[in-house]
Design a protein that fits this description.
The protein is α+β, with helices and mostly antiparallel strands. 18% of the residues lie in helices and 35% in strands. Bound molecules: 1-deoxynojirimycin and calcium ion.
Length: 666
């Protein structure tokens, strides 16, 4: 009997020991650690980076329909695997990417019901991520809330936009963590010791997108808050299924965040086996003229921009200036019924726009036409016409489509960033892939790296972009110095830079106010050099030079724009402070492009070229702000010069207030 009791106690102790024992998983170099354990049957994790505590013990789990909590677990088994591979993206910031991590998978049993859940942690040198897997067959899983939590260890400085279930087009706040109550992701912060952290998600497919809500009792703690369906539930699905990855980027420098390929690595490889038809391009557009109010989208305005004649003019300019594509907005009927249901059928051209003639003309000049599907938010109508719309473009030789969702979602009860819309966006992505069409999604849900799996999903707006400078108080210079470390971490951005007529005065007499926030005092808040630099700084595989061609024709600085590629072999952030400035170097073949932008303060930057080939002398052509340039009153003055440099060279370059520069080395 005594022996029996002793054995029982040992078993109890050892099973308890297993449950309360921490399991540690380290990144390949050992600089990043994640610890996981159960504490009173709650599964919790914490993380340290280079011996600094980043995240304190934080909860995991779910609340399902009928207040059914899936939060109390026993660990049945754990598996560890290591992974190391180098893969080649179809386009991006690098020609090859290393995917190297250690993974821990915990097989959990719910202590209250006989059911199971798996959680996997992947730990990289530049961050970590976790994902839930509901492994058992279940025809209906309704998630009311995901309980994943981030309990930060101190009151970090952070950069964030307010969570909004319908738009991402906002300016950033820079506050302490305690002052950030409900935020969208990517949510970026810096610890007192100078470690940078950013929270986002990867592989968002048939789930709801996440925001982060501060805990009312603990202002350093943020819980995942999923954008709900109309009936209040967060996710409606069936099992087995896996959630998106909950991603934590971590780096010792701001630049390290922007250089990370964590999001791409956490997505599945391409399901499109032959990607030879997918090509990054630079493009111009019959676009800015509408935003300025010089012309209009609707034909009955009497100021129609998308005419055959105007398109041919733009195609001619593109063909002779190294621009590979042209987007034409307002080509199809429906704009006169803006806001009405079924306004657009996505296939009928206005009578003054002969789409076949335009596409044929473009083809003869080696220029791609980027088609346009503006839905006005009418998802019901778009889904009804989707096959037809893509099949039509495919049949006439259009390989790129810009989509747009400017307007309240129809069905009106659904949120723009909820699961209903994620299903929709991903359906459009898959339909486009079937028709070999590449996408530029405006008013998207926040990107999550799905472009690795569907490389035809090229670029996204989802940012307060250039258009705001045409009809609102605009974007301050600090905005674009913040984006590479916040929204930019979610993936490519169709910010649409490259405005040369900064004051927007050239055609002032032709402008008609069309948008409420327009006070009649609009302008771009940067210098001209800053605008060129943005085309290198803000990555997009469809990169726009957004101004009217009248403002580019015969402009000596445009030769810098002509040379900028839309995909890169290598990327290095040379220097940066979030919201203040960034200097980035990107390589395509043997050519390096170095670009810098600054906020409302001028500054002198030193650039050392130690990353260049040691045995080569390079010709450096640069375009930079003139001494008196200033984004407010002297925005278009610039200087161009040429010199030679080697890997041992160092140069100093000044950026004006709201200014920037570009250097091309070959
Ligand atoms: C908003 C988009 O961001 C913009 O690029 C487009 O021109 C308008 N909607 C009209 O579709
Ligand atoms: Ca927009």
């Amino acid at each position: 009997m005594k022996d029996y009791i002793l054995l029982f106690l040992i078993l109890l102790f050892s099973s308890n020991l297993f449950a309360e024992n921490e399991i540690t998983i380290e990144s390949p170099s050992g600089n990043l650690t994640v610890n996981i354990k159960t504490e009173n049957n709650r599964l919790v994790y914490c993380s340290s980076y280079k011996n600094e505590h980043i995240i304190n013990y934080s909860n995991l789990g779910f609340v399902l329909k009928n207040n059914d909590s899936l939060c109390f677990f026993r660990i049945l088994k754990s598996d560890k695997v290591s992974f190391d591979e180098t893969w080649k993206p179809v386009w991006g910031q690098y020609s090859s990417i290393r995917n190297n991590y250690n993974q821990l998978t915990l097989h959990l049993q719910d202590t209250r019901k006989n059911r199971f859940l798996d959680v996997s942690f992947r730990v990289y040198d530049d961050g970590f991520a976790f994902q839930y897997n509901f492994p058992e067959h279940n025809p209906e899983v309704i998630i009311i809330s995901e309980e994943s939590n981030y309990s930060f260890s101190e009151n970090n400085k952070c950069w964030w936009i307010w969570a909004d279930y319908n738009t991402l087009e906002k300016l950033y706040n820079n506050t302490s963590l305690k002052e950030a109550s409900h935020v969208a992701t990517p949510f970026t912060m810096k610890t007192a010791k100078g470690t940078y952290i950013c929270i986002h998600e990867a592989a968002l497919d048939d789930y709801s997108s996440m925001t982060l809500k501060q805990d009312l009792k603990d202002s350093l703690s943020f819980k995942v808050n999923l954008v709900p369906w109309a009936d209040g539930s967060a996710v409606k699905t069936s099992a087995p299924f896996k959630t998106p990855w909950r991603v934590v980027f971590i780096s010792s420098s701001a630049g390290g965040l922007a250089e990370s390929s964590l999001l791409q690595n956490l997505n599945e490889p391409s399901v499109i086996s032959d990607c030879s038809w997918i090509k990054p391009i630079k493009y111009i557009g019959i676009w800015w003229e509408m935003h300025l109010g010089i012309s209009a989208w609707a034909m009955n305005s009497g100021r129609h921009g998308a005419t055959t004649e105007n398109a041919k003019r733009y195609i001619d300019f593109a063909a002779s200036n190294g621009i590979e594509g042209l987007v034409v907005e307002g080509w199809n009927t429906g704009w006169e019924n803006w806001g009405a249901k079924d306004a657009f059928d996505f296939v009928t051209s206005y009578p003054d726009f002969n789409i076949r003639e335009v596409v044929e003309y473009a083809r003869s000049k080696g220029v791609e036409i980027i088609g346009h599907h503006e839905t006005g938010g009418d998802i019901v109508a778009y889904e009804k016409n989707l096959e037809n719309a893509f099949s039509f473009y495919n049949s006439i030789g259009i390989k790129y489509v810009k989509t747009g969702y400017a307007g309240p979602v129809n069905p009106p009860t659904e949120n723009h960033h909820g699961q209903y819309m994620i299903r929709h966006y991903n359906k459009v992505m898959r339909t486009a892939a079937n028709y070999k069409i590449m996408l530029d999604v405006h008013e998207p849900v926040i990107p999550s790296g799905l472009s690795r799996t569907y490389p035809n999903l090229m670029t996204f707006e989802g940012v307060r972009g250039m258009e705001w400078n045409a009809w609102s108080e605009g974007n301050p210079p600090s905005h674009t110095c913040t984006l590479p470390f916040t929204r930019g971490l979610a993936g490519p951005m169709d910010y649409t830079p490259g405005i040369f007529d900064i004051s927007e005065q050239k055609f002032a007499d032709k402008r008609v106010k069309w948008n409420g926030p327009d006070t009649g005092k609009t302008s771009v808040h940067s210098t001209l050099c800053n605008q060129i630099a943005l085309m290198v700084v803000l990555y997009s595989p469809l990169q726009m030079a957004a101004d009217l061609i009248e403002n580019y024709e015969n402009h000596t600085a445009f030769k810098f724009v002509s040379q900028i590629p839309a995909t890169w072999d290598d990327t290095k952030v040379l220097d940066a402070k979030i919201g203040e400035y960034i200097v980035i170097a990107r390589r395509k073949g043997n050519k390096w492009f170095i670009a810098g932008i600054t906020n409302e303060n001028s500054r002198v930057i030193s650039v050392s070229f130690n990353f260049l080939d040691k045995n080569k002398t390079y010709t450096l052509n640069k375009c930079f702000d003139s001494e008196n340039a200033h984004f407010e009153n002297n925005s278009i003055e610039y200087v161009m010069s040429r010199e030679t440099v080697k890997s041992t060279s160092d140069i100093k370059i000044r950026m004006a207030e709201g200014g920037g520069f570009i250097m091309i080395l070959d």
